[in-house]
Amino acid sequence: MPDELNPYDKKQEKETLQMPDSHETMPLQNLEEISLREEGTLMPIDDSSEPVKMIMLIKRKSGLTPEEFKKHYEAYHSKLGQKFFGHLMTSYKRNYVALSRQGIGSATRTVEWGYDCITEFIYPNMAARMEVVRLAKVPEIARELREDEAKFADGPATIMMRCEPFDTGTGDGHGSLPFR
Questions:
Q1: How many other C-beta atoms are found inside a 10 Å radius of the C-beta of residue 82?
Q2: Which positions of the chain have pLDDT values less than 50?
Q3: Which of 37, 124, 145, 161 has the fewest CB atoms within 10 Å distance of its CB?
Q4: In which residue ranges is the amino acid composition biased (Basic and acidic residues) (predicted)?
Q5: Which 8-state DSSP code applies to residue 34?
Q6: Read out DSSP for 82-109?
């Protein structure tokens, strides 16, 4: 791929894609044909110009308090995310679990959920997400991320998922029950 091509500009022609950590190339007609190789599994990737939302569930390393986990994530690890991938994201939020409840209505009870943070990444499109995947596999970046992750997170327990958000809005309250 010529150096002058911008990987985020879908109007430019793309003839091949260099797979991360590989010398293999694959012909492309469009981004729908890209497959991401993760742990031997091929995952289809679409060519949506829609934003891509990823959610990561993170558990703290054994022996750390929730406060120590949060302090390290905010002071160090989130800064690495900004440094390496910030130019590719439109939003990067960490949601720390303050309380978890199970059940509905009067049958709820407080439970230990097991995850300490729900991290949200929003990318402008799939091309930006794929660039993050590529960068995360660059040996120097991967090493720095993994070394820091080992200081505060239980890496094997981490769950990453792509989500399809639906926003109905909050409504205007018309027809709602009165607040007591």
A1: 12
A2: 1-44
A3: 161
A4: 7-24
A5: -
A6: HHHHGGG-SEEEEEE----EESSGGG-E
